[in-house]
Each structure stands twice: as structure tokens, then as C-alpha cells.
Amino acid sequence: MKLTFRPLLFHLLLCCATLTLGVHIHSDPEVSSDGVIQTELKKTVSLLCLPDSGSDTQADEELVWLRNGAVVSLKEENRKGRSSVCVTPIIHDDNGATFTCHLGGNATVSASVTLNVTYQPQLCGSEDIIVEEEAVLVLRCDIWANPAVSSVLWSLNGSEVDLIAGGFTLANDGFTSQLSANGAKKSLHAGTYQCTANSPVYGEHSKYYQVTVTEKVIKFPLMPMIAGLVVVFLTGLLAVFSRWSRITKCCK
Ligand SMILES: *[C@@H]1O[C@H](CO)[C@@H](O)[C@H](O)[C@H]1NC(C)=O
Ligand SMILES: *[C@@H]1O[C@H](CO)[C@@H](O)[C@H](O)[C@H]1NC(C)=O
Ligand SMILES: *[C@@H]1O[C@H](CO)[C@@H](O)[C@H](O)[C@H]1NC(C)=O
């Protein structure tokens, strides 16, 4: 009895071994050797997960997809034997996202790919900026990009902005480059500004700013004005009131 069972058991083990060989991911665009898929905003990435070939019983292997560790909900017919996921359109949030496919019965049998979404800074056109004398001048330039921009250059009337001479402050938080000046002066700050970001992949992109410095408007002194009116009104009332006794006396 024992002897006849052995080959069968061996056969079963062999069968199970081929079942858990592994899974692999086919993708469009193709995955690089380090498991990264290069893509861009608004494009589409198609992923297909298949159990490794080696046994014909894999056709009904249940497959599970995860996006950054969270289960992707799939239709019933898209889970057995082969399973596809389509990421469209690609958005900023997909950058760095990891898609993992594993066997429904054994999560350690898995394959992963990571998306690298490249995008350029949104720089184009020209913006008109009007600032009053002595007010704060702020110019913002989008530099959010993948890969990060290698340089940002601000120029005024064609030559590099002189931060010290113009009393400018330059700030950069990785998303925006901000050039600002407290106390705008026509002689120092009016003109055509240009922000140029240099991307190692997308090259140079620029945005222009036409800055006009207007004369300071004397603000109408509203509060003293109201106070004055109240005083005038009260004096008038008092005058009428003091005369009233005379008027009433007269009528008696
Ligand atoms: C899952 O697969 C791994 C690798 O093939 C294997 O070592 C492990 O025993 C399997 N676990 C189960 C519960 O089948
Ligand atoms: C993403 O792609 C860009 C452009 O090819 C590359 O410079 C960058 O190193 C890539 N990043 C990752 C995390 O692979
Ligand atoms: C820049 O050029 C404009 C137009 O020629 C001029 O009015 C302005 O004063 C210049 N700005 C500076 C800071 O030189």
C-alpha cells in the first residue's frame, strides 16, 4: 500500500511546486530591469499579471493586485489565470506608485512594478502684475517637475535680477520659486521679469511677468470723517434743542 502511494505523493508535490513557481508582470510601456515603468502625465499604463508557465493547472489560479499595498478591486472574470490593470490617465499622484500582483492563495508569490511619472514645470506665457508704490511685489514661478529642475533663473529687463540692489528675497520650496520685494519702487522694480527653469529631461521653460508700479493712492480717511460728521450733527441738534425752550416759551 505504502509503496504505491509514494509515486502519487511525489507527483502531487511536483504539481504543487510548479503551481507556486511565481507570477510575472507584462506591461505597456515595458518595465525596466529594475522594475520601473517610465511614463508621463495623461498617458496610459497597462499591466498584465500571469502565473509563470510550467503547469496547465494555473489557468484557475486566483490573482490579486495591490496599489501601494491597498487591494485593487477587480471584476470576477479578471482574477483567474490572468489579471490586467489599466492606469489611465496617469496623474501626479501615480508617481512612485507600486503595483504588486500576488497569488490569491499565497501572498509571498508576487511581482511588483513602480511607476516613474515624469513631468515638466508649468511655465509659459506672460502675466501682467500691477503693484502700488511701497506695496509688496510677489512673483511666483512653478518649478514642480520630475526629475527636479536643475536650475531656476530670474531676470529683469533681460539681465539677471540683482537681489541686493533690488532688495529682493528669493524662496524655493521645491514647488514654487518666489521672488519678492517689500516696498515696491518704480525705478527699481518696474519692467519685464522672466523666470527660466531648466529640466534635465524637458529643457528650458520660461514665464514672463510684466510688472507695473503705480502711484500710491492716498486712502480716504474714513474714520476721522465719520467722527467729524457725528460732531457736526450733535452740535446742530444741541442748537435746535437750546432754541426749542425759547420757541415753546414764545408760544405760551
Ligand atoms: C508560499 O510560497 C512560498 C514560495 O514559493 C513557499 O515557500 C511557501 O511555503 C508558500 N506558502 C504557502 C502557505 O503555501
Ligand atoms: C525617473 O525618470 C527620470 C527621467 O528619466 C530619471 O531622471 C529619474 O532618476 C527616474 N526616477 C526614478 C525614481 O527612477
Ligand atoms: C525695464 O525696462 C522698462 C521699459 O524699457 C523701463 O521702463 C524700466 O524702468 C526698466 N526697469 C529697470 C529696473 O531698469
Description of the molecule:
- The protein has helices at 2-19, 186-189, 222-251; strands at residues 23-28, 36-40, 45-51, 63-67, 70-71, 83-87, 98-103, 106-118, 126-132, 137-142, 151-156, 159-160, 168-172, 176-181, 191-199, 203-214.
- The protein is α+β, with helices and mostly antiparallel strands and 252 residues long.
- The chain folds into two domains: 2-117, Sandwich (Immunoglobulin-like); 126-214, Immunoglobulins (Immunoglobulin-like, Sandwich), CATH 2.60.40.
- A hairpin with a 3-residue loop joins strand 15 and strand 16.
- The radius of gyration is 37 Å and the shape is elongated.
- One 2-acetamido-2-deoxy-beta-D-glucopyranose (NAG) binds at residues 20, 106, 108-109.
Keywords:
elongated; 5-stranded mixed beta sheet; Immunoglobulin-like; 252 residues; disordered N terminus; binds 2-acetamido-2-deoxy-beta-D-glucopyranose; alpha+beta; 2 domains
**C-alpha geometry:** elongated
Q: What is the beta-strand fraction? A: 35-45%
CATH topology-level fold name of the largest domain: Immunoglobulin-like
Provide the structure class.
alpha+beta
How would you sum up this structure in a few lines?
With 252 residues, the chain is an alpha+beta fold.
What's the layout of helices and strands?
Layout: H1 2-19, E1 23-28, E2 36-40, E3 45-51, E4 63-67, E5 70-71, E6 83-87, E7 98-103, E8 106-118, E9 126-132, E10 137-142, E11 151-156, E12 159-160, E13 168-172, E14 176-181, H2 186-189, E15 191-199, E16 203-214, H3 222-251
Parallel strand pairs: 2-8, 9-16
Antiparallel strand pairs: 1-3, 3-6, 4-5, 4-7, 7-8, 10-14, 11-12, 11-15, 13-14, 15-16
